Amino acid sequence: MKILVVNSGSSSVKYQFIDMDGEKVLCKGLAERIGISGSRLIHKLDTKKLVLDREMKDHEQALKLILETLTDKEWGVIKDLSEISAVGHRVVHGAERFASSVLIDEEVLKALEENSHLAPLHNPPNIMGILATQKMLPNTPGVAVFDTAFHQSMPEKAFIYAIPYRFYQEHRIRRYGFHGTSHRYVSKRAAEILNRDYSNFKVITCHLGNGASISAIMNGRSVDTSMGFTPLEGLVMGTRCGDIDPAIVVYMQESLNMNLKEVYNVLN
Q1: Full set of structural domains in the chain with CATH
Q2: How far apart are CA 118 and CA 94, in angstroms?
Q3: Is 147 marked active-site?
Q4: Is 157 helix (H, G, I), strand (E, B) or coil?
Q5: How would you classify the pairing of strands 212-218 and 221-225?
Q6: Which residues are within 8 A (CB) of 196 and not within 5 positions of it... i.e. 6 or more apart?
Q7: Total-model pTM
Q8: How far is Cα 36 from Cα 52, in angstroms, rounded to an integer?
Q9: Which of 53, 72, 147, 243 is catalytic?
């Protein structure tokens, strides 16, 4: 079985093509600057690298170029697109609706769109990647893998904020947590390396990149994490401020005459 893994961002698409029988990455790459001048595809095959300067107006054109490269005689790893058994899509926000990966259908897509206001920078491009792939691979199943799903095991004492409870009841304002796929993998791998029973194992995991978070995992379940309602909360990151005094937002608006969009851009 060969799986195409896709991570669609606002102006990029990262991908890996994996042979699951041998758990081997056959190739990987990045389509960047989508919708921006200077767009290009970087495709890596073993130790070789191909750079294609191509205009990519949208995610559909980017994925079309990726699929063409996968089947290219010199740089490809398959002869025909029918060899792609499934497509896995990284989706940032599944809210409380999704506690595990799911097969994508119309109902799932509708739920993802409804959750977009919770991750306006991430879910819309995730959805664009799904729709583009469905158009070009209509008979290939797609699976959504959620950043938030692993953290759905957190107890209420960890995810409820110290604000009136009605905000959770009526608007689902709560801690969701992100980087769940990373925290799950790292915790399981740590248990394997330490020769520990994962179902009886306590560990703190750290996802440290341009975006960063930590999680407390007990017996294979996330019990707390640093990111919250959005990926803005928690540790100081590459561009995100992480935890700050919430009154700073009010001060920036009232004393510095900044509008909400300007404040949001500064914090992110």
Answers
A1: 1-146 (3.30.420.40), 156-225 (no CATH)
A2: 9
A3: yes
A4: helix
A5: antiparallel
A6: 190
A7: 0.85
A8: 15
A9: 147
